[in-house]
Write a structure and sequence with these properties.
The chain is of the alpha+beta class. The chain contains six helices and five strands. The longest helix has 27 residues.
C-alpha cells in the first residue's frame, strides 16, 4: 500500500507546533486503532455518542482503508478532530477555533488523557469557587464535555482499548 502524504499537508489553517507534532504522532503511532474511535464532541446534540470505530475482527486492510477515509474527512484540532469540510480542505474556521462548542468537533481515543486533564482542571476550578452557585455553574458548563468523555471511555472499554488509551499521552512533550 502506498504511503500517505505527510500529515503536515492536511493541517490547512491549523498552525502551531502542537498541532503539527500531534498530527505527526497521531498518524504514525496510533493509526492502528485508537485514532479511529470517534465520539461526538461537547458541542454536539448528543455528546459522547459513538460515531465510528473499528469493528471487532476488522482486517488490517479494512482498518487502513478506514484510516485513509478518516484522514480525508478530518483535520487535527485541539483535543480532537475537526470534521467541518471547508476547514479540512484548508479554509479558515468560521467559528474562530471554538472547537469544544462546535458540533463538527469529534473526540478520538487518542485524546483521552488530554480530556482527563481537562476534567480535572474544571473540577479544581469548581472546588476553588467562592460559593456553591459558582461551583454549580462551572459543573453545568462542563457537563457536555464530561458526557463526551464518558461516552469515549465506554466506547474504548467496549472495544477493549481503554487501558491502551490511558497509557498513551500525546499531549506530553515527546522526544
Amino acid at each position: 500500500m502506498a504511503r500517505s502524504p505527510p500529515a503536515k499537508q492536511y493541517l490547512g489553517q491549523v498552525s502551531g507546533r502542537m498541532a503539527e507534532h500531534y498530527a505527526r504522532v497521531a498518524s504514525s503511532e496510533i493509526e492502528d486503532v485508537l485514532h479511529h474511535v470517534w465520539v461526538a464532541g461537547p458541542g454536539s446534540a448528543h455528546p459522547g455518542k459513538l460515531l465510528t470505530s473499528p469493528s471487532q475482527g476488522m482486517s488490517r486492510e479494512a482498518a487502513r482503508a478506514m484510516a485513509v477515509d478518516l484522514s480525508r474527512r478530518s483535520t487535527p484540532a485541539e483535543g480532537g478532530l475537526c470534521t467541518f469540510q471547508p476547514v479540512v480542505r484548508g479554509d479558515a474556521c468560521p467559528w474562530k477555533l471554538n472547537c469544544e462548542g462546535c458540533e463538527k468537533f469529534v473526540m478520538s481515543g487518542a485524546d483521552l488523557l488530554y480530556w482527563h486533564r481537562k476534567r480535572e482542571q474544571w473540577r479544581s476550578l469548581a472546588e476553588r469557587a467562592p460559593d456553591d452557585a459558582t461551583a454549580d455553574y462551572l459543573h453545568q458548563v462542563f457537563e457536555p464535555t464530561s458526557q463526551a468523555i464518558d461516552g469515549l471511555e465506554k466506547a474504548l472499554a467496549a472495544l477493549g482499548l481503554l487501558d491502551q488509551a490511558l497509557a498513551m499521552d500525546l499531549r506530553r512533550p515527546q522526544d
